[in-house]
Amino acid sequence: MPYKSMTAIAVAGELETQSGDPGKDAIDICRRAWTSAHIKRAEDKESSAWEREKAGNKAYLEAVPALSGYKNICDFVACVNYASMTGVITHVDAAHYLANARIALSTIYHNPNLFRERKRGKPKKEKKK
């Protein structure tokens, strides 16, 4: 994918994506936050393109999901990857963010209780012998 800034993407309109893409909803939330902040900053006629871009980038990163839970970690990775490809963050910053995601994911894998599905209802009582 060739490099495009978020400004160029916002001007071009929404991207075409396949429904059911992992992380699509999270990326959309982050992109909407970027667009909203960019537009809000653009209302100030004295703001420069750089200031609008920075306001959007900050809003994008604030909208990225927290590194808690498997789905959030996957969404975090999707948002950081998209941000890196579109120039919201540098590739160096993306590497640091993705290293944090790797650590968060490893904590899940090292706690097998998180993967067990809990049965609904009350726990069964053990029979006395």
How many beta-strand elements?
0
First-to-last CA distance:
67 Å
Helix content estimate:
55-70%
The quaternary state of the protein chains shown equals single chain
Rounded to an integer in angstroms, the radius of gyration calculated over CA atoms is 20 Å
- Unreliable stretches covering 5 or more consecutive residues: 1-5, 7-19
Order of helices and strands: HHHHH
Gross geometry: elongated
Number of domains: 1
Instruction: Summarize the main sheet.
Output: none
Number of helices: 5
Structural class by sheet pairing and helices: mainly alpha
Mean pLDDT across every amino acid position? 80
Q: What portion of the residues fall into strands of 2 or more residues?
A: under 5%
What does this structure look like?
By secondary structure, this protein is an all-alpha fold. It has one domain (about 5-10, about 20-115). It is built from 5 helices and no strands. Helix 2 (about 25-40) crosses helix 4 (about 70-85) and helix 4 runs antiparallel to helix 5 (about 90-110). The radius of gyration is 20 Å and the shape is elongated. The model is unreliable at about 1-5 and about 5-20 (pLDDT under 50).
Topology record:
Blueprint: H1 6-12, H2 24-42, H3 49-63, H4 70-86, H5 91-109
Helix pairs in contact: 2-3, 2-4, 4-5
Short summary of the structure?
The protein has one domain (6-11, 22-114).
What keyword list fits this structure?
60% helix, 5 helices, disordered N terminus, mainly alpha, 129 residues
